Amino acid sequence: MYKLAKTTIISLGTALLTFGLVGNAPAKVEGDTIVLGAAVSLTGKYTTAGNHTQRGYDLAVQRVNSMGGVKVGGKSYRLKVIYYDDESTPARGAQLAERLIKQDGVKFMLGPYSSGLTKAMAPVTEKHKVPMVEGNGASRSLFNKGYRYLFAVLSTSEQYLQEAINLAAEQAIKMGKSPSSVKVAVAVENDPFSLDIRAGVLDDAKRHGMKVVVDDKLPRELSDMSSTLTKVKALKPDVLVVSGHSKGASLAVRQTTQMRVKTPIMAMTHCESAKVTSAEKFGMRAEGILCASQWAPTMTYRDNWFGSSGDYAKTFESAYGYVPPYQAAESTASVLVWVDALQRAGSFDTEKVRDALSATNMQTFYGNIKFDETGKNIAKPMVLRQIQGGKYKVVAPTKWASDPLVYPRP
């Protein structure tokens, strides 16, 4: 088990600093230490995933430092991260990005949690020409603005639940029906990430000729979706798609059970963050749900830092006491991309490092990473897992499947 770095959280934007750092960091490199900056959601509605994000960063820093650090220009450097709490608020995230760059002198940024926070911070890092590598901002709208300094290791959000629509089409064909006979219900949070998921689902439904019978926004506080579920019960769709981060996932599992809503396919995001397989919290209510994932421990990717996907999962669980959700894995991968780019650049010049990031072509335990001209990762697919017997089983895409789909949902 790793002995993890002790952190201190000081509220209202005062620094949360790892490895005993006190005060402002005057520059991007302090002696033999490379300073990275990150604003993450340690309070507010994204607290759960924000903590996964920070732990993913911390584990990568620990592992890299334990293996000799980052070699730049023939010298080895350690990594250190300055953290601030963005309070799950985009405006606060933008303020903290300015603080990290202008007051703390950070030149190498890690991303926040969520597309909304990333959207708020990206214009700031772009203005100051500070590269940011992020693993939790998946909105495709981030990558149509011409940013040169933003790089994302994850698949973009419109891809998250498209495979659920493809599975519904496959099942219709197996039953001797046309995919156009499938009815779809959509319920998403009104945020950039979830709206992109909606767009991807609607695009795929249209491609198959399916009818969308419910297309609702979840309430702002993600506290009650009974009005949507009443429609679902009445219209009996074949597929129910839900996206509302971890709070929305918990809400959907709880209320579909309470209201006895039954759909042959139910697919959602953030199952792991919401801990929907927890017997104590949910019993077997989540059985048969399809969960979008950027990554799974059963995948066959490898790297020199953590070994296989399964090795990473064991390392994370040993350190933190739970199986890593993909939010943690993609955060760890973001740090590894920084390490690879700094070593290839052989310099701390931000333009040289930016160019090295742009030329990234590597495999990590999390997946293959190669950026297109917009900064998107074009080398890694999404996976869809089904909860079977309280366990996550990869069921789509077919070439990545470890188990067959259970249909209809029990």
Give the total of beta strands: 19
Q: What's the overall geometry?
A: globular
Q: What are the segments in which pLDDT stays under 50 over at least 5 consecutive residues?
A: 1-27
- What structural category arises from helix and sheet content? alpha/beta
Percentage of helical residues? 25-40%
CATH fold topology of the largest domain: Rossmann fold
Q: How many domains, as an integer?
A: 2
Fourth-level CATH superfamily of the largest domain: Response regulator
- Output the CATH class name of the largest domain: Alpha Beta
Q: Cα-atom Rg, whole angstroms? A: 21 Å
Q: How many angstroms does the end-to-end distance come to? A: 38 Å
Note the beta-strand portion: 15-25%
What is the residue-mean pLDDT, rounded to a whole number? 92
> What does the main sheet amount to?
8 strands, mixed
So how many helices? 12
Shape-level CATH architecture of the largest domain: 3-Layer(aba) Sandwich
Q: Could you please describe the fold and organization of this structure?
A:
The N terminus is likely disordered. The protein has twelve helices and 19 strands. The longest helix is centred in the N-terminal third of the chain and has 20 residues. The protein folds into two domains: 214 residues, Response regulator (Rossmann fold); 153 residues, Rossmann fold. With 410 residues, the chain is α/β, with parallel strands linked by helices. Helix 2 packs parallel to helix 3 and helix 11 crosses helix 12. The strands form four sheets. Strands 1, 2, 3, 4, 5, 6, 7 and 8 form an eight-stranded mixed sheet that branches. Strands 10-9-11-12-13-18-19 form a seven-stranded mixed sheet, sandwiched between helices. Strands 14-15 form a two-stranded antiparallel sheet. It is globular.
